[in-house]
Design a protein that fits this description.
Elements (H helix, E strand, L loop, with lengths): L7 H12 L6 E5 L6 H13 L13 H8 L5 E3 L11 H11 L9 E5 L7 H12 L5 E7 L7 H5 L2 E4 L5 H11 L4 H10 L4 H7 L2 H20 L6 H4 L4 H19 L12 H10 L2 H20 L5 H17 L10
Parallel strand pairs: 1-4, 1-5, 2-3, 3-4
Helix pairs in contact: 1-2, 4-5, 7-8, 8-9, 10-13, 12-13, 12-14, 14-15
């Protein structure tokens, strides 16, 4: 599994705790998408499994290391939802927990990795909680997490909270350039669109994905010029609507930043002309209202099962257009 430089510090910190005899039996790895926490969990698991560690390194040659490298260590459990499901059920959890109370198959440590612990059903979380309260000897739990508040408070309280902070922008741009040399403005924009998470920014910079965002920006510029927002439906009505609405919301917030002369803090550094157009065509109140409405729309689309996506988007676009025509925003200026 690939390793990333920003994981060095948290890895050394977690291993040092174990070396000092203070290693926590359950670690909650709280990270944004695109931070590579799976690589951290894998490296820590290898160190815990290794029979002849060398400082912060696993040896790579013992039988346990070789099994981990081959991806078939019998005492390492990775729990993900069954095919076609979006949650981890109690039966899956109980099946693994039963094995944890048995003797380790290789005679060493046992490690459980849950990439997205928010996927636990309430029953599964409660089953896991009982084991976390009285864990078997030499057994370790690593829980990945995007939003800790979605977990049971009692489950969170049994874990050591480890937040993986995004590296600073300069270091991330340097890392992106080491892999795919490119335009600094684009790289900065991709990072800011994903709160600094380097792997998410790297995916954003893929030509096909970047083109999709560019087309949305172009469609928004045309909508503002013509005061006709309905054509935006073609850019928004896709399965990845959550991310597309995130792009739209950041552009609206950039309009607010432009009004406050905070151009250096724009998320969309490559779309400054569009940010200025939004700033000069809308009042601050209108921009704030639009941001709130689009975020509410996004939340509904992501949380309400079976919702009519096209109908909701169309209604929101019509509301935005009507507010413009009714004078809730200033007449558009020429940029």
């Amino acid at each position: 599994m690939e390793w990333y430089p920003w994981l060095n510090a948290p890895y050394r910190q977690l291993v040092a705790q174990h070396q000092a005899g203070r290693g926590h039996h359950a670690v909650l790895l709280h990270a944004l998408p695109g931070m590579g926490e799976a690589s951290l969990a894998w490296a820590l698991s290898r160190w815990l499994m290794c029979r002849q560690t060398d400082g912060f390194k696993s040896c790579g040659v013992c039988h346990d290391c070789r099994l981990m490298e081959a991806g078939n260590h019998p005492d390492w459990y990775s729990l993900t939802p069954e095919k076609g499901r979006h949650s981890l059920g109690v039966d899956q959890i109980r099946e693994v927990l039963d094995k944890l109370y048995q003797r380790s198959r290789q005679g060493g440590a046992k490690v459980v990795w849950l990439p997205l612990s928010e996927q636990l059903t309430e029953a599964a979380a409660n089953a896991l909680l009982k084991t976390l309260e009285e864990p078997p000897e030499n057994t370790w739990f690593l829980l990945g997490c995007r939003e800790p508040t979605r977990l049971l408070a009692t489950l969170r309280s049994r874990c050591l909270h480890c937040y993986l902070a995004a590296p600073d922008e300069a270091r991330s741009i340097q890392w992106l350039n080491s892999r795919h040399p490119g335009d600094g403005t684009m790289q900065r924009t991709a990072l800011r669109l994903h709160a600094g998470a380097p792997l998410a920014a790297e995916s954003m910079l893929l030509p096909a994905r970047w083109q999709q965002r560019t087309e949305l920006c172009q469609a928004l510029a045309a909508a503002l010029a013509q005061q006709n927002f309905l054509p935006l439906i073609a850019q928004l009505n896709h399965d990845d609507v959550g991310e597309r609405l995130h792009w739209l919301a950041t552009l609206l917030v950039d309009g607010l930043k432009w009004q406050q002369h905070a151009q250096a803090f724009l998320v969309n550094q490559d779309q400054q002309a569009l940010a200025e157009r939004l700033a000069t065509s809308h009042t601050a109140d209108a921009l704030q209202q639009a941001v709130q409405q689009w975020l509410t729309c996004r939340h509904r689309l992501l949380t309400i099962a079976g919702i009519n996506r096209e109908l909701l988007l169309t209604g929101q676009l019509l509301n935005w257009e009507q507010s413009l025509i009714a004078g809730a925003v200033c007449p558009a200026h020429t940029v």
